[in-house]
Amino acid sequence: MMNAPHTTVSDGTLRVALLGCGNVGSQVARILLEDADNLAARIGARLELTGIAVRSIDAPREAELPRELFTTDAESLVEGADIVIELMGGIEPARTLILRAIDHGATVVTGNKALLAQDGPTLYERADAAHVQLSYEAAVAGAIPILRPIRDSLSGDRITRVLGIVNGTTNYILDQMDSTGAQFADALADAQRLGYAEADPTADIEGYDAAAKAAILASLSFHTRFALENVHCQGITSVSAEDISAAKDAGYVIKLLAIAELLKDEAGDDGVSVRVHPTLLPREHPLAAVRGAFNAVFVEAENAGELMFYGQGAGGTPTASAVLGDVVSAARRMVLGGPGRTETTTGHVPALSIDMVNTSYYIGLDVADQPGVLARIAQLFAEHGVSIETMRQTIHPASDVGAASAELRIVTHRATESALATTVKHIQDLDVINAVTSVLRVEGL
Which residues form the ACT domain (predicted)? Predict the structure, then answer.
């Protein structure tokens, strides 16, 4: 049975339970303790950190924190809290503890992008039913305040597209490949040495982390609850130094983008494409200038036009800033009284298949250096309704190890994903094609 939500503060104190004390959690705890007076002045009530739930009390921490705050009894800690901050990560026990907090009537602040992407709709619905607040600014793009602007500042507008660099690891790798000519493996090793990439970087380089964030951005932008299964996901492991160099020569930079876009389906009805994949951007596009491990989100709205939000996308202190922003906002609401803020939905806008996307493409081909090859390739593009915008050719003379060949780099005009896929399939069947080396999408044209 759900308890009545804590909507008012009777004793001038709000009890805060922290679940998890890793890189971000330790900084959140430090700020809550060190800045207690400043936070109280802003809120109108004191935030009392009642405990920190951890797996091991003796594990090393990023910050020096009072030992008496640590506990392994997360359930009891949650049941005695007005505000629960979940920074454990993963699906369980985080999901069970968040639901327990909601049912208890506590406000919840989380940075758990994986859980929100997998089971966000369940959490949102439970919070709505309990009239409590579920906030998650830290789940996307670290310190960048992007979710509140989308939810609040643009709530009277109609967002048409969101493009984001939301994973610092992949942006660092691609930036190193672009600026130094490094191979993928070398750039990844450098990212791991600097602490930008985990020992197991799969979630980053395969795009899973960005896909979870894309689902969250799409849900807020288009007032429909999207899950991870609605996101088309492709990582950066197939991006080669040759792709980076060819893109650079043509005036592009390759970024891993999370994209949520309002489109029309075959019946002319609204739908949303949510996808993550390596993307060519013109170098004059604002997102092209985002370097290193930084993040940025580019929003297009009917009335506001184009907006970009930029900043540090990871790290303990920057992400802790986003967490505390949610905590202060929720605490102010609790001091004033009233129900928790719930999600805004206007109905179901379906997620569209990647086949419905209409964009430009970059195709790399290794072909035989023979007369008529270009004409045959151009004819196949035309037959399937894909128009070539530019084509660059590099000849590789015959040698002792092989016959003469040519490297073709083609950029198309806008076409549907399905038309492009059919074109590439037929090109692969040509006897003059040695290999299709790359197929990448192009945005920002």
Answer: 362-444
